[in-house]
Amino acid sequence: MRRKVCKTSKTLLASLPDHIMTEIMFRLPIKSIIMCKCTCKALRHLISSTDFVKLHYARAKPCILLANIMTFDCYMSRLVYLLEPNNMSFISDDSCVCSVNDPSEGVNLKLTQLKNPTYDGKHAWINGDYVLVNSCNGFLCLYRGHCPQTYVVCNPVTNEYLKVPSPVNYIGWNDVSRGFGFCPKTKQYKVVRWLKSTDRETPVTAEIHTLEVHKRWRTLVDTPVTTNFRSFDHPMYANGFIFWVYRDSPQSYCVVSFELEVERFRSLPKPPIYRQTDIRMEMIGDRPSLCSRPSRAKIDIWTIEAFGGVSEHWSKYVSIDIINIPRFISADYTCLITTCSKCETSFLLYHLYNQIMIYETKRQKWRSFKIHQNNFEAKPTIYTPSFFSLKDAVPGANVKSISAGFVWPPEKMPPYLKEEVSVAGST
Fold first, then answer.
1. Which intervals hold domain F-box (predicted)?
2. How do residues 14-26 score in pLDDT, each as one tens digit?
3. Residue-wise pLDDT tens digits, 169-218
């Protein structure tokens, strides 16, 4: 009887046109697509095809990747979690991480568990000390905490990873920041690292590596960063550019961009923000944006208008009052921005203790969620999942993947998401 059902299922599957099967796959969560890929050759061939991979990424919505960190140094654990829309209702294809149903209909968000490809299960503490740099086209760039000159690019959806050739370890120089991006014109992925000398009078320098076989690290010229910068964090990739925010004094911040096609740095106008914490670069549409916190009870979002033009300048996009959320006023949290065509822009606050607040600009309303699990501490970042293969992205490279036969130890109690009482908000 079981064989007959299986045969019938394959017959029905084969009878469906490819465009209908593709549309069905587009509406499934990432984990479901991964499972479908393992069911039969027809689905595996469809999901692995170049057309499907490109169309899926073009329609994919930005999600929140929660990298469960193990130590104070923010090392990623063997599992990562994707906070993504639960599209199983097939009601709309405009769902995104900020599209939440009415309370009476239940939560339209889910936690999807993915594997960290840098873990092979043999030497957990050796292979598990990687720190996230940033993401690009579904790929994650990581560097090794105890050995900053070691870089890895991986895709937690396809379970592939690629070790980047190590740069020269110059005596008296330290890695202070990194960035990872893609050049749309040359179709090349590149890793950039910033170096600072122990000699305070020596200018900051930078190096770049193109992910191709036999490529070496090269020194970049004309870096705009001075020698007296104080912090250099939160790299972001968008549309062929990598952006960094750094503090050049205790009271002011600067933004620098790097165009991957011409490999050139440029300083952007100084944003009008001072003495603030947790400054992050995000994107609102095609505009680079800054998320800042001028006071304990307020969040400001700034966007740069006329990017790359003569009249380039910063403009305040919105101010969000969080006075009605007492637990966030005096807490350590991360502000992230998500956008989609359906709900325009939403802002997500991720509390240090796994409290998630989503603010929808259309409804001017907060939604509250809680991740439940003991000892779960995560570092959130915007991430758009993809089925792009590193073997296609870097032809000829020594791409490795987690063995299909490798069995991961089960978690004692997997984290789960639960909605709490909604909180009113204002702008």
1. 10-60
2. 678 888 888 989 8
3. 777 888 888 999 999 999 999 999 998 888 877 888 999 999 987 789 99
N residues, the chain: 427
Angle formed at CA 70 by CA 232 and CA 389, multiple of 5 degrees: 75
When mean pLDDT is compared across 117-121, 150-154, 174-178, 382-386, the lowest value belongs to 117-121
Question: What are the structure tokens assigned to 402, written together?
Answer: 């987690």
Query: What pLDDT does residue 200 have?
Result: 77
- 284 falls in which pLDDT band (50, 70, 90)? confident
| Mean pLDDT score across all residues of the chain | 79
Are 349 and 356 in contact, with CB atoms under 8 Å apart?
yes
Residues 362-377: pLDDT tens digits? 777 788 888 887 777 7
Among 327, 323, 326, 315, CA closest to 299: 323
- Cα–Cα dist 91/71, whole Å: 41
CB 107 within 8 A of CB 87: no
pLDDT above 80 for 275: no
The answer for residues whose C-beta is within 8 angstroms of residue 369's C-beta and 6 or more apart is 107, 109, 355, 356, 357, 358, 417, 418, 419, 420
Distant-in-sequence, close-in-space partners of 170: CB < 8 Å, separation ≥ 6: 195
Q: Tokens representing 348?
A: 């997500």
The domain limits of the chain are 1-59, 60-424
For residue 274, what are its two tokens?
């001072």
Question: SS in 3 state form for the chain?
Answer: CHHHHHHHHHHHHHHCCHHHHHHHHHCCCHHHHHHHHCCCHHHHHHHHCHHHHHHHHHHCCCEEEEEEECCCCCCEEEEEEEEEECCCCCCCCCCCCCCCCCHHHCCCEEEEEEECCCCCCCCHHHHCCEEEEEEECCEEEEEECCEEEEEEEEECCCCEEEEECCCCCCCCEEEEEEEEEEECCCCEEEEEEEEEECCCCCCCEEEEEECCCCCCCEEECCCCCCCCCCEEEEEEEECCEEEEEEEEECCEEEEEEEECCCCEEEECCCCCCCCCEEEEEEEECCEEEEEEEEECCEEEEEEEECCCCCCCEEEEEEEEECCCCHHHHCCCEEEEEEEECCCEEEEEEEECCCEEEEEECCCCEEEEEEEECCCCCEEEEEECCCCCCHHHHCCCCCCEECCCCCCCCCCCCCCEEEECCCEECEC
Tokens matching residue 226: 């001075």
